[in-house]
């Protein structure tokens, strides 16, 4: 039996503009996903996926030969179709993948709720890439697309900066992002899973990014990493929110939902859902729960360092 593991992700800076070359700060999370593979005598790939509570949420069997992967039950389920696409893309990148004359029992196990947006897809892509012995970035490009920062987080155990070069090859550097005020940082779930692909497509249609904006976001990222005080950190977060709001023509989440909150609130990733980063001198759970947002996770419980 083989087991492959990948970390979840949060994009602290550079949402959207990372696609155009801005330097982004991203952090791997303690929450992730593992994939286990066991060979069997039947030439069938029996796939089962389990949630964070160990409950089965998806099951399918696939037949395969040297060139094709077939849905054994002819199921039109969107998840089964997407999984077939991932396996077929992996096989295209490595023709020897699934070419052993044996079958497989495969299972995936999440550490976090699927609705949280911490990387259900990216951790799966990275795990399948490890199993198939292929480049995870190439597999991502052939399936979900995106900048690839989530793949970098899946593969690293420390915070990273991520930047796409002109050749569209990522520059990934581990960084010592460990703010002294981290006990005043929290992640709040907005009760909505945001579709990153839709957000990216909308952003691309705006065509509003220039070199000056990219330089500003990159500068914020670099300053944020070495910021010594919570006040300076909040100033940078607010500057970042203002810049991105102007680019995508959306109202910042704080002015939209949390006008009376004393700390900073910053969107992470595609705006409108998933988690936000919150600064607060005391635990803000009571405030956010009074607004209907029950999931408030302290920085140290979320971030893998």
UniProtKB/TrEMBL annotation:
Keyword Transferase: yes
InterPro entries, per the entry: GHMP_GYDIA-like (IPR047765), Ribosomal_Su5_D2-typ_SF (IPR020568), Ribsml_uS5_D2-typ_fold_subgr (IPR014721)
Alphabetically ordered keywords of this record: Kinase, Transferase
Source species, domain of life: Bacteria
GO molecular function: kinase activity
Gene3D superfamilies: 3.30.230.10
Keyword Kinase: yes
UniProt-recorded name of the protein: GYDIA family GHMP kinase
Source species of the chain: Winogradskyella aquimaris
């Amino acid at each position: 039996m083989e087991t492959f593991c990948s970390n979840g992700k949060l994009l602290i800076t550079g949402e959207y503009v990372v696609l155009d070359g801005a330097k982004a700060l991203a952090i791997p999370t303690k929450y992730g996903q593992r994939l286990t593979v066991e060979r069997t005598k039947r030439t069938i790939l029996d796939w089962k996926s389990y949630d964070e509570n160990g409950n089965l949420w998806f099951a399918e069997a696939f037949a395969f030969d040297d060139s094709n992967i077939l849905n054994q039950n002819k199921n039109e389920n969107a998840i089964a179709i997407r999984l077939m696409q991932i396996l077929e893309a992996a096989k295209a990148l490595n023709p020897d993948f699934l070419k052993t004359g044996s079958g497989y029992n495969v299972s995936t196990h999440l550490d976090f709720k699927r609705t949280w947006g911490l990387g259900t897809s990216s951790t799966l892509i990275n795990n399948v890439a490890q199993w198939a012995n292929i480049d995870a970035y190439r597999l991502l490009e052939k399936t979900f697309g995106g900048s690839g920062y989530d793949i970098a987080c899946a593969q690293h155990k420390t915070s990273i900066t991520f930047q796409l070069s002109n050749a569209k090859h990522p520059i990934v550097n581990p960084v010592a992002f460990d703010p002294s005020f981290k006990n005043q940082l929290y992640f709040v779930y907005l009760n909505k899973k945001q579709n990153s692909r839709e957000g990216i497509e909308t952003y691309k249609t705006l065509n509003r990014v220039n070199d000056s904006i990219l330089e500003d976001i990159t500068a914020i990222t670099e300053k944020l990493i070495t910021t010594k005080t919570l006040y300076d950190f909040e100033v940078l977060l607010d500057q970042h929110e203002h810049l991105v709001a102007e680019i995508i023509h959306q109202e910042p989440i704080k002015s939209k939902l949390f006008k009376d909150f004393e700390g900073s609130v910053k969107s992470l990733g595609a705006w409108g859902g998933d988690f936000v980063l919150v600064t607060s001198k005391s635990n803000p759970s009571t405030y956010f729960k009074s607004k209907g947002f029950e999931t408030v996770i302290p920085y140290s419980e979320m971030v893998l360092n």
